[in-house]
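seq:
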Amino acid sequence: MARNIDDRLTQLGAKRVGPRGEGDDDKSMEEDYLAWKDDMFAAVQSELGWEEGAGGDVADFEVTELDEVDDAKLYLGELSARALTGTRGVFDAKNPYAAPLTQAKELFEDGDRNCIFAEFDITDSGIRYQTGDHVGVWPVNPEVEVERMLSILGLQDKRSQAIDVKSLDPALAKVPFPVPTTYETMFRNYLDISAPASRQSVGSFAKYAPTPDAKAMLEKLGSDKAYYHETAGVKCLRLSEILMLAAGDAPSSTPTTWSIPVDRIIGAIHRLQPRYYSISSSPKLHPNSIHVTAVVLKYEPVPGANKVFGVGTNYLLNLKQAANGTPPSAREDGAPVYALDGPRGKYKKADKLAAPIHVRRSNFRLPTSPKVPIVMVGPGTGVAPFRGFIQDRVALARKAREKDGPDALKDWGTIDLFYGCRRSTWDFLYRAEWDEYAKELDGKFRLHVALSREEGQPKVYVQQLLREEGDRIGQALVQQKGYAYIWCVSSFLSHCARRLHRALLTLGASISLSLSSRSGDAGSMAKAVERELATILGKAKGGSDEDGEKELKLLKDRNRLLLDVRPLPPFLLDLPHARHALTLCLSSLSSSSSAGLVLDVHARARGRVGFERKEGRARGGRT
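struct:
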């Protein structure tokens, strides 16, 4: 896309100043961005005769410690004034509902991984959800990270100090959390201190180092791409870990105190965001509860490095342990510990725990008529929304039998679920439920299980099972006008750009893509499934693979091939690689007559970019 824009601007007589920036999503987009940015500013200075001003190292925020504050107006983890005052109203992203945890259990029978099933009670909350929606769970940072940051900044004795934060330039930087609050609350509830630190922010803290050696190390980390990658990048080190490493502190020791102003920390670390999970229940069977299915993220990025623990899923793991009153098992050993009481103890009443949640709508929907065949493909916890789909059909089947008798389902379409896991004795999720669902659906439901690591058996993947059922699946999708659903985790950048390009260019995307900052087997699985579907569709149409590709595109355009919705999290706009990708994508569309979009980019020397979207009347009368 960048090359096309560059070529087109050149054709129109534009002169490019500096090199064209290109990034490799298989490596580090942030590093590619930083390398391009430095050369670009140097070229602009040379071409236009500009001089760098002194505004590049200006704080965005001002932090003031308050002598007196009304406790009723002090934010201790609440996300909005409504949440602080307890005003009754709609529960949403700014006012999540403290949903009681009614059940939590381990789903994996064996192996070294954990998968949590959590059931949240929404009785009398006013929350309503539809099958296929997502639930946002608002975690906190683990206590070890909170204590590290307080210690590094010399704030342990001031943890309960009330502070106010003001933006010095509201047009470019808004205060990322409600105030007044406390230092401890800021680190526990509001800033994502558990995220890997960026090279740019690490380099900016060098001048606050406690020793010359620590300063030299941070300067090298900030300027030397290869050194940063080897020392911190591949190990996914958090800011606290990098500062301790530079100061020569052992991981388990008391950290050395740094003189970094708190306002710089606020400007360098983005806001802690909710973690979204596909709801794995149907409101037709469970109108008063929301089910979550989540694999606990924990891995060693490189041999010998500290383990990385996902903030959201380990928060759920802590909830499960506390709710059941059980100590950590062997495979849970080493997991971080969280403060679960919530602001002012709102999330713990007697022996009952709660978690702040809200529902986010999705376009991942079943066809209205049960006579339409559906095909679902999902590996691992990708089965979560499909469990909700099956429950939805089971509820309809019960009503249909009550009304029309035992033959009520004879005209129903087939329901095929292609599910992939590792071993039947390890991670076969909801194994006991599927047979019961098949009985209730009179055999209309078929489960196809691909086991990739079954002992003594060859590896099998879902696309292979699709191929074996190709004739029947092709008939269901082509002749019977069925629907297909794919859940996957895919590479962030390429799918983000594709999604935005298609959505804005056509003024209404026909397919939504899952977004994730991690890529891997699941991303390639989705591509393999689409290729297999194209072959199946081409054969069903009596033509070639090319005809199958056309039919696949037709399914997408008519919203009969859907992927699980994973909208771009707002905090990703603060990441350099995301800014760069979005700038390229949106810039290419802003001049198109078919897209009513004007893009204003505001940049500062340190590289923060903001976006303004102005809606206008576009071709065809749509906005």
